[in-house]
Amino acid sequence: MSGSSFGKIFRITTWGESHGPGIGVVIDGCPAGLALSAEQIQKFLDRRRPGQSKYTTKRNEADSVEILSGVFEGKTTGTPISLLVRNQDQRSRDYGNIAELFRPGHADYPFTEKYGIRDYRGGGRSSGRETIGRVAAGAVASLLLGELGISVRAYTKSIGPYTVDEDDYRYSEIEENSLYMPNNTVAEQAGQYIASLMAEKDSCGGIIECIADKLPVGLGEPVFDKLDALLAQAVMSIGAVKGVEIGDGFKASLSSGSKNNDPFYARDGHICKKTNHAGGSLGGMSDGSRLILRAAVKPTSSIARTQQTVNTSGENTEITVLGRHDPVIVPRAVVVVESMTAITLADLLLQNMTSRMEHLRKIY
Amino acid sequence: MSGSSFGKIFRITTWGESHGPGIGVVIDGCPAGLALSAEQIQKFLDRRRPGQSKYTTKRNEADSVEILSGVFEGKTTGTPISLLVRNQDQRSRDYGNIAELFRPGHADYPFTEKYGIRDYRGGGRSSGRETIGRVAAGAVASLLLGELGISVRAYTKSIGPYTVDEDDYRYSEIEENSLYMPNNTVAEQAGQYIASLMAEKDSCGGIIECIADKLPVGLGEPVFDKLDALLAQAVMSIGAVKGVEIGDGFKASLSSGSKNNDPFYARDGHICKKTNHAGGSLGGMSDGSRLILRAAVKPTSSIARTQQTVNTSGENTEITVLGRHDPVIVPRAVVVVESMTAITLADLLLQNMTSRMEHLRKIY
Amino acid sequence: MSGSSFGKIFRITTWGESHGPGIGVVIDGCPAGLALSAEQIQKFLDRRRPGQSKYTTKRNEADSVEILSGVFEGKTTGTPISLLVRNQDQRSRDYGNIAELFRPGHADYPFTEKYGIRDYRGGGRSSGRETIGRVAAGAVASLLLGELGISVRAYTKSIGPYTVDEDDYRYSEIEENSLYMPNNTVAEQAGQYIASLMAEKDSCGGIIECIADKLPVGLGEPVFDKLDALLAQAVMSIGAVKGVEIGDGFKASLSSGSKNNDPFYARDGHICKKTNHAGGSLGGMSDGSRLILRAAVKPTSSIARTQQTVNTSGENTEITVLGRHDPVIVPRAVVVVESMTAITLADLLLQNMTSRMEHLRKIY
Amino acid sequence: MSGSSFGKIFRITTWGESHGPGIGVVIDGCPAGLALSAEQIQKFLDRRRPGQSKYTTKRNEADSVEILSGVFEGKTTGTPISLLVRNQDQRSRDYGNIAELFRPGHADYPFTEKYGIRDYRGGGRSSGRETIGRVAAGAVASLLLGELGISVRAYTKSIGPYTVDEDDYRYSEIEENSLYMPNNTVAEQAGQYIASLMAEKDSCGGIIECIADKLPVGLGEPVFDKLDALLAQAVMSIGAVKGVEIGDGFKASLSSGSKNNDPFYARDGHICKKTNHAGGSLGGMSDGSRLILRAAVKPTSSIARTQQTVNTSGENTEITVLGRHDPVIVPRAVVVVESMTAITLADLLLQNMTSRMEHLRKIY
């Protein structure tokens, strides 16, 4: 089935394996007339590039993007935008020893059962490099949203038990620490925590938060394609994500209706909410408040410790996952969460154009 | 856009408003040859019917289902299955006073902004009655899964702060208490908690857990249509759900790789996992272990207390939501979560048939 | 698979068998704010109703439509529009003798091979009654197009060898003869031709032409979803249609570039074409000229003559198809072709809204 | 909208403009375990390459394909297959003079109106080079069908008025003449006809026929996704195609039921048809007979003669289309029609796997 596509109007299709010739994405349905350059996309890709801090893998992946179609004289033409990133630093040797072993926490076993064949080099299609296509498309979606004044921003809320409370958010510090946390002090502590795990050949996880501002009211379709539902799919489809919540999320299950309901009030002709427990979504549609979502990221599965496993012949054995791996993928996944959020919003923005006869009359 | 459909092969389309002539669903893509009767579907619908305990609304909704197409001589024919439930107990008067008010926590405001028109009677399309179509389709999906030995079961894990710990699960007790909790003692305490909130014209939320057993390995598509991702969309698309997690979910973000990875081992020619932190999904595909997901349900938004709000003219005012409402929707939502899980699994089961050339050769 | 749905934004899903409880359609994606009543839909349905002339079956099918959802206070709400027509005159006896026979020219044999089960009563899902859902949806699409000044109209161009040449078109006469031909004289001759075939227990076919005026320029997507391509699918999906052409169609294969190219010229600030060999479509997009398509309809397969066939046990035998059948389905299929054209155009009109950034800025 | 994708399970997405960096296709949903090499795809691409005879353009397009993903150790892995063909011989100068002119018969005018921007170089996205992606995907589809014993073959039935009658078909001669006609004598006459038009700076069209053998019975979905309907969309979506028919097609409209119905008979336990007026499709599903379809191709729109037109400022003017163009595109379009047919069949073959519960039991 076509599981490599996402979106209905702004529709992306990613392709590529970690150790094949390249990785890419085709974006179909981007409106014509959006200013777009390879440089703008590259900026997004650079945010997920490894080797930028001591907490990310030392692999040197230039990940340089080429626009193959859909842009003419600096503007999108309305035709599919094909983006290509060649794979370069492919040390296939490092992965040779796992051809016949199923790595715990990885897709190796179900992948083999599903297809009967597996490109074992670096995880193949299940590699984190698959997200390159998502981030490239996320850059385009973000530019589209930006034209309409909508901003999307993700950051690290927590690394293991080290969390930044909402009261301590300092957004300006996000770019100042290599963990992309909105608080340098917590980031410092989280860094030491990561270092201690690295020393034990272990890894950790964390929580990424993503916010979007200035959304028009009414984005999201009322039943299965609710704003929250599509964001949940979008974000849960990122490799290591094991949970997604909107607004107060799981905490809401502990609250009461009188506390959890956000009262409306009018100010200067606008309808506002006194609180935002809902995280910007009511009945699956944007409500004009800030959109807030969180994604729980599991600890990196590739660890250098010896682990028990089974080989492709079904025999009990041990495995030591070699290669260069991130002790925590949260910082690099921040831009992936942001990208998937932007793609979902761009798609719903386009879908919403067709909701009223009045809109047709404005255009035709 | 077509936001009222879900699934790619086993594809359901729901329709209907709470106070219109009826509610229904069309299931396209159900394989031919499945034994199916209205009675079997009715059993599922009866599980979401109100009026069954003191914690659910007193509305008397018979919700009797009629099969309009797709079944011949007791078996599905491969053509669309159309299911209809007529609305009966529609006290439109109760809702008259909210025609010009935006209820806090409800879809009223974004719905009006999106469409410029709103069927205000009982929430219209955003009513909980929309889930009737989902549950009717869930019954069909469950029967299909059952034919292949797959079982899906949901229950209430917690009501507000009253949680059943995994060690205390007694599955046989689920049907013994009106909250569908796997522990009668906790259910008793939770019931008192609900009663205390009802006395204060307030409401509460909770957590629903859903498990599936005997899934073939490899269900789910590796990128955007991961098992977890589609389940997240499916479950988050239920009205009051604000968070979804698979396996250890948010807790995994606090763990380490060495603890969170589930080691493989072989037994009697089968590949098993020593633990199941992953909740039955690796790389977005089923791994042969029990599938476990949880959904966080917010407190019922409709409460009898007076709340601050705005009217459709943009003026500050107050609202008192009359009518008969559940103080907690969790017990009635259990079968909805189970249904959406079953529908997602049935669809992925069918999708997965086309994954290998070997499968084609078995059929052609 | 979901073969019972058509369209991407204005998306219809039909369901129902000829001898089940009813036939219907769900329209998802119709914009909110379109005035819509059951009477307006009924008018369309009445055009395909049998028993209106001596050349159509004598079955008495009231085919009364009920709007089950999606309309509130006379306007569409943006939610799915569910339309139901109960089956009434179901003489199952007439079809009993064909339960174990494969009727020549019918779907019986491949249907049985595909599904292993077949609702043999009156053709089941492959009955012409399936088009009731299409026509009901076509009514809604036509109303939507009408709001934007677009008109769609189909008529009978030929019955067997009796053709109305373009020079002899008198559109006002279409409603004056029971064959819906734009020339009463040719219709008279065609009527005698049909009568002669009826006398021999035989049937005939013909050609339906459909035109659309005042289309905006640019409808249709440049590659697979070309205006012509989607119209071809839409019209070829009608039971008895065996060929589709746009503009000069097959005749264009005999022409030369210098004759077939339609020269452009400017008049009063508008870009026009001197001729319209293209039939209103260039590169798969509407070009501002009249859209013209033709559909070839095969002779009715159900004839009272004895025919050779095979039974479900694989034995050679004979069949005499009883029941009341149209000697030619062309007149009743006219409104079906018109409906499928309108549905396709409505969908492409909505799709086209998202083609330019400028359009987004007009709405947001 | 996503108009650059086709198919539901075997789903292709093409991208690229004639004068951009390259052209390509992503195939998602191809089952794992199909032997596939660049050489096999190249063979198909070479069939559409220009410069092979005096009747095709002299442009030298190497059109060398690179497999970027989805194949490992010579077999498909079940992940998306990305195929890239770099553009090489891009004489942009030749097209400079048409930047501000709308070429008659081309997409220039509606494209500009639709998007507000147009890559005018060589037709951009509306160039015939877009079919490279289709043919590359068609190669993969053909290999898949071949594994199941299904063959698909297209050829030129007529060039202008020069037609090969069915009685005169000599399939072995198809590869012997540069027009791919199944009769060398007619091909010789057609060649002279083309030469005479070239001398007058004019062009011609023709008819392509495509046949498929050994299809399983039951391919195609009964309502909108009928075998005929999807083939009609697939083939009509090819640039210059103006008409499509199945079996007797338009001729069937002149026949009678008693002649047009194909009688069934049993032979050696198989169900056969005495005739094949239906062209292998009954009720939109394959019936076990040879599938036959025809596509009408209009004369090449690019002719060197001076033509009347309008410029982008809306002024009347003249145009002379320079560059190297095929006087007839039929021979090069043969492999495109074959490819689109193969892609449609592969997709329906995969869709059909899910039609029966029995099929599920064979796999799970």
Automatic annotation (TrEMBL), chains A, B, C, D:
It is an enzyme of class 4 (lyase). One of its GO terms (biological process) is chorismate biosynthetic process. One of its GO terms (cellular component) is cytosol. InterPro entries: Chorismate_synth (IPR000453), Chorismate_synth_AroC_sf (IPR035904), Chorismate_synthase_CS (IPR020541). Pathway: Metabolic intermediate biosynthesis; chorismate biosynthesis; chorismate from D-erythrose 4-phosphate and phosphoenolpyruvate: step 7/7. FMN binds at residues 125-127, 283, 298-302, 324. Belongs to the chorismate synthase family. This is Chorismate synthase.
